[in-house]
Specification:
Largest sheet: none
Order of helices and strands: HHHH
CATH class: Mainly Alpha
Strand content: under 5%
CATH superfamily: 23S rRNA-intervening sequence
CATH topology: de novo design (two linked rop proteins)
Number of domains: 1
């Protein structure tokens, strides 16, 4: 399959699905968390996908490509931290956190694989 858009990338589709799942879960967070934890976890999870899309568009420039993917990896790790806070505060259960954490670990591995071989993705 020829990759014509960031939407064709498995890593993008996975990150997008995770962001949707986090949005769904965070709807149940208390109202007092709206402008802190809820907003932060939603923003960082969405930023993973956005940075992957930007990286794909900058793939002709290996350093820019790697930089945007590094941003994406960082946002994925940040999302994991916010999810850990959600568990600590009792907004998520252990099962949900474990599932999301494992998916983010897989996602981060995919991003790192791309970072390590930028030439493979050049246009």
């Amino acid at each position: 399959m020829k990759i014509r858009s960031h939407k064709d990338l498995n890593v993008f589709r996975c990150s997008f699905e995770l962001a949707l799942r986090i949005h769904q879960l965070s709807i149940g967070f208390p109202p007092e968390e709206r402008f802190s934890l809820t907003d932060q976890v939603r923003r960082s999870s969405r930023s993973v996908s956005a940075n992957i899309a930007e990286a794909f568009r900058k793939r002709r420039y290996p350093k820019a490509f790697v930089a945007k993917l590094s941003d994406s990896e960082g946002e994925a790790a940040e999302t994991q931290v916010w999810l850990s806070f959600a568990l600590a505060f009792g907004y998520l259960d252990e099962t949900a956190l474990k599932e999301l954490d494992e998916k983010y670990e897989q996602l981060e591995k995919q991003i790192i694989t791309m970072i390590l071989s930028p030439d493979k993705w050049s246009a």
